[in-house]
Amino acid sequence: MDKIAILAVLLSTLCFSTAYAKEFQNHTQMMSHGDGHLMDMDGAMVMGQNEDTLPGGCDKIAAKKEITVRAGHKYAEKFPGAMFAFDQQEFQFEPCTKLTVHFINEDEIRHQWMMHGLPKYLYPKGMFHLEVSGPGEVSGTLILPPGDKTYLVHCDIAQHMEKGMKAQLKVGKGSEDLPSIPGVTASIYPDDYSGKPYKPDAVQPVIQAPAASAAVADAAGKAAAAPAVEEGALSGTLIIGLAAGLLLAPALQNRFQGMTGGEILASGLESLTHALGWLVSQIGRLIKRFSANKTISLPDK
Q1: pLDDT at residue 190, rounded to an integer
Q2: What average pLDDT does range 217-242 have in this prediction?
Q3: Average of pLDDT values for 142-166?
Q4: What ranges do the domains of the chain cover?
Q5: Residue-wise DSSP of 87-110
Q6: Distance between CA atoms of residues 179 and 189, nearest Å
Q7: Tell me, which fold does domain 23-171 have in CATH?
Q8: Higher pLDDT, 299 or 27
């Protein structure tokens, strides 16, 4: 009698789990909501769909590529401490490539393949986004911008990226390697299972020696004593600026071809932001290198 009861429980459990298990769905009947936003009522979504509009700076489609990306818990098994992952952690394509991504979710929960940092004048919110709730597949297309840049690809569901579901996509040579990409780059904060409390590296204050202060004061004095800029130099600078503008005009026309005034302004501000970020990072590297290689001692009292 006990065996019959156990068998009945096992059968009912199997029927319950089978009834509530989601079947694999290929989401091909998507409803368009404008601005490249597609979705259906079964939990699939595409944002930033772009099949024919060239980004500024692209004269034509350089290549047509298709990739299949799988997402699931089983792909994280090779990364200690990870819970979710893509089956690929790095992608690379030439600029102006028309890329179609077939995104397959193999888990019973929702996953995304989200690409950040795209030009906002063409891709709303600066991203391309694929999403599937439960087992299924959805496809989307975008045209990659020109230039060498590295883009973050990740799942934006809470804790999915932190638990391993992230990758990097390089256009051209890429601009850099992003940190903490599983199996590709080192983690910013490596996992530590020692049980000891985390103690960040102590920040050493930078103390300027008197000799350095004297050198700075001397340089400032020389700058103050320098003769004023002549009007001819200002005129020469203006001429050089005009000449540079004429030389760069064809390239700028190609870069902003097809954009409205607002899009040109947005693209220019985005480029300026990247340039300032690069400049700040270079200054930071110089400061770190100086702090690491230069030992400055205080004078004896």
Answers
A1: 75
A2: 56
A3: 95
A4: 23-171, 210-220+231-293
A5: S-SEEEE-TTEEEEEEEEE-SSSE
A6: 10
A7: Immunoglobulin-like (2.60.40)
A8: 27
